[in-house]
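Sample pair:
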Amino acid sequence: MSTLTSGALALALLVCPALGAVPAHAADPADALAVEPATPATPAQSVEVGPLEIVQPTCTDGVASQQLTTDRHGVSTTVWACGSHVYASRTQQNGSWSDPLEIARGLDPIASSDRRGRVTVVVRQPQGDGGLATRRWANGTWQPLVDLTFPTQAEWTFVDDYWIAVNPRGDTVVTWGQKNNEPVSEGRMIGIVAAFRAYD
C-alpha cells in the first residue's frame, strides 16, 4: 500500500466518526432507541383548583363523619354521612370531583383503599339492629352492599366501635365490638367480631 493510500485511509477513518458515521455494531434499530432524546420543553406550571364544593345542597342535616382515602394512582374517594344516608364522591381524570352518589343508608362511614384502586367503605346501618355493612368500589362501579351483621338469636344487636384494615393486595378485615339486646352502654358484650374478605 502506498504512502498516499495509507494517508487517505487514515484520514477517512478520522473524519467519518466526526461526520456521524454509524459503526456496524450500532446499526441495529433497537440501538437507535438508546439515543438520548432531546430535552422536552418545560411543562406549564399546574394551577391549584378550588376549593370546590362537592356536597350536594340538599344535605340539610349537615355533613358528618367525613372520610378520605387516596389510592396509589392518586385517585381520591371521600365518603360522608348526611342524616341516615352515606354518600361518596371520587376524583376524575380531569381533576374534578364526581357528583355525590348515595352508596348506602347508614351512619359513620369509614373507608380504605388497596393498591389496585379498590375502595372498601364500612357503614353502621341505621335500622334497629345497628349492624354493619360494607360496599366496595371495584371495576369502575360500586358493588352491591354486603351485610356484616353477626347472626344471633337476639332481638336487637348493638355495635360498638369498628375498624377496617386493608393490605396492599386487597385483603380486608373489619372488626367491631357487639352487644345484644341492650344498648352499648349496658348489656353483655359478646366480644370482638371480625369479618374477612380475600383480595379476589
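The longest strand covers residues 157-166.
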